[in-house]
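Hi there. Long-time user, first ticket. I'm pasting a complex I've been working with (about 666 residues overall). I'd like to know whether the download I got is complete or cut off, because the file seemed smaller than I expected. Thanks.
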Amino acid sequence: MAEQMKLEEATLSDTGKDDLDNIYLPHLMVIQEIAQETPDVKSMKLVFKDEEMQKNFSFRTGQFGEFTVFGVGESTFNICSSQTWRDHIECCFRKVGRVTKALWEMNEGDIIGFRGPYGNWYPVERMEGKNILFIAGGIALPPVRCMIWHALDLRDKFKDIAILYGARSVADLVFKRELEEWEKRDDVTVVTTVDPGGETPDWKGKIGFVPTVLKEMSPRSDNAIALVCGPPVMIKFTLPVLYGLGFAKEDIITSLENRMKCGVGKCGRCNVGNVYVCKDGPIFTAAQVELLPEEY
Amino acid sequence: MSDEEAKVTVQEAEKKSQPVLKTLRPENLSVLIQKGLDLGYKVFAPVKDGELVTFEQISGPGEVFLEGITTRMSPKSVFFPRTEKVFSYRIAKEDIALGDQKDFAPPTIILGCRPCDAASLPIMDRLFRWDYQDRFWNERREATLIVSISCLECDEACFCTSVGLAPDSTEGSDILLTLVSRDQYLAEIMTDKGADFVEKTGLFDQAGADLDKAAATKAVRGKLGQRFDLDKIKPWLDENYEHDFWKEVTRMCIGCGICTYVCPTCHCFDLVDEAHYDGGAKNKNWDACQFAQFTVHASGHNPRPDQVSRHRQRIMHKYKYYPDNLGATLCTGCGRCVRHCPMEVNLIRILNGICELSAGELPAEAPESK
Ligand SMILES: Cc1cc2nc3c(=O)[nH]c(=O)nc-3n(C[C@H](O)[C@H](O)[C@H](O)COP(=O)(O)OP(=O)(O)OC[C@H]3O[C@@H](n4cnc5c(N)ncnc54)[C@H](O)[C@@H]3O)c2cc1C
Ligand code: SF4
Ligand code: SF4
Ligand code: FES
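Hi, the file is complete. Here it is re-exported in full:
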């Protein structure tokens, strides 16, 4: 995996915002490779059909896109690859509704539509020179995984890197091969856990909920930034543990998943308080989230 | 483009520093409409269909109906149709070909819209020209001439004067006509686009200095009065996202969404695919924050799970979030939501209630310390 990547740092002057006249018109992308991650999660490698477009396409780690299955609909997914990879992008999705079911049925070589990149990105400049703690639950590993690879590709810009990833059961862990790859490295600490009852006989990771395991890990909060993505309940119980460890609200970064349609601040769907999650987010600090009405 | 530039509305960019005043004889209005049609414009105007008055594309001046108060539906659908194709696609063997939309912004005239509807357009420009550009709205706006007519009548649902507008305000109009006497419209020509059209028609006369628009609309202004104090609304909303008041005032709302569809400034939409056997399209359809489906996540979690939170969103968006983000109140006081709500949910009453609460809770003037 790592060998396929271009490791030079992307020097991006902008957000990669494209200048199409019609903001609703997608670009065509070819599904290059599909991996089934869990019984209901797949990840896909995508390349632009237009080679020039692929060459010139740039985005920032943490941004999202609108993915069209033609004739079925459009879904919002995080671009779960890092901005340091230039020859393709990746997305990872759970089969939950009409669009994701249709995408699930597609094959390598099929064509889908892509609009983006949209939204803000991880505050990489603020994270450089710091210890980074990644915390993810379930299907929310993809939006964290892009930043994990970003940090690993530019490893010497960051200090200690720790990853805590939990899922309901062993079968629900996504990107298992990458978790193994990270575990083998000596410059990153990886802790995986499954909910009690979700373990298999040969499970070597922890058993317990993310907040509990986090408390056991008790990572240091000085000069550190925590990046937390997961289902609302996980976030709800993880934040107090982080506060207890001394993390400031400004140093905890999370991503909101309000329902979206346009992705460009027009359709009104993602509006929460004074914020349009698609334009001002999806990435916020815990301090920013606290200021919003509880509509996420 | 900087945010500041983006907020420049179509009207502001073309606005004349001083409106040019002319007159038009009422019998020439029909001639004007025919000229517009002859010049190749699509013309939309109020048309009477039984009891209903709606904006329709017309083919002759005889179809136009300018009496009474404003239309049932606003002319927003001219710029933002209920449903429109934003691109098409065809499946050919293993490949897909995309087709962009063309020729969707022909030269158009909206004739006979009321000042509250004209005013809604520059308010909506702020959104569609904010950062990413929605060409469907923007190009139609640029291709459309707005000839509006001042109101000489109102009903108890109208409240333009309470949101900083007036029955004769010129916001958003290229030309505003006010019937100042039985045989004379005063024409205020606000933009270059308006002036060009006036020139082309050759129907307008030089205005004398004696024409008094304010006198003509004085009676209706008096009737409208001041239905609430706009200055009190946002400060209260800033502080009272959580308040029992919301439950009280939205109790009757059944979430039918009518208030949003009749509203000239509601603009939420959905993007929906449509498939045929060898191709299809993406459609941009009106949607409404009043529907439960609007915000529900795929997991079933709904951040706005009840009608109270959905109705609060409508008012917050119009009177707090939009002003905060885009610098304008997202309501022109056209009164349609009040007039057409089947459950008699009444925005004027709600805003009035807010004024009362704010008077009760905040001292109007901090007492001077001695
Ligand atoms: C910024 C952002 C990033 C995201 N990133 C990711 C990501 O990386 N990976 C990912 O998997 N998801 C991600 N999501 C969530 C993802 O957008 C939704 O899960 C997905 O669009 C919904 O699936 P669908 O399009 O198939 O549903 P649709 O078919 O569009 O369904 C529409 C709605 O109908 C309802 N519905 C339809 N079918 C069902 C069903 N079977 N059960 C219950 N309700 C149903 C749901 O309410 C659903 O929201 C992200 C969302 C946001 C806002
Ligand atoms: S306020 Fe009235 S018109 Fe609007 S959604 Fe509720 S019931 Fe329908
Ligand atoms: S909210 Fe009601 S009064 Fe205000 S513009 Fe919309 S329909 Fe008219
Ligand atoms: S997704 Fe349309 S406004 Fe954010």
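A couple of notes from our side: Confidence is low (pLDDT under 50) at residues 1-19 of chain A. DSSP finds nine helices and 15 strands in chain A.
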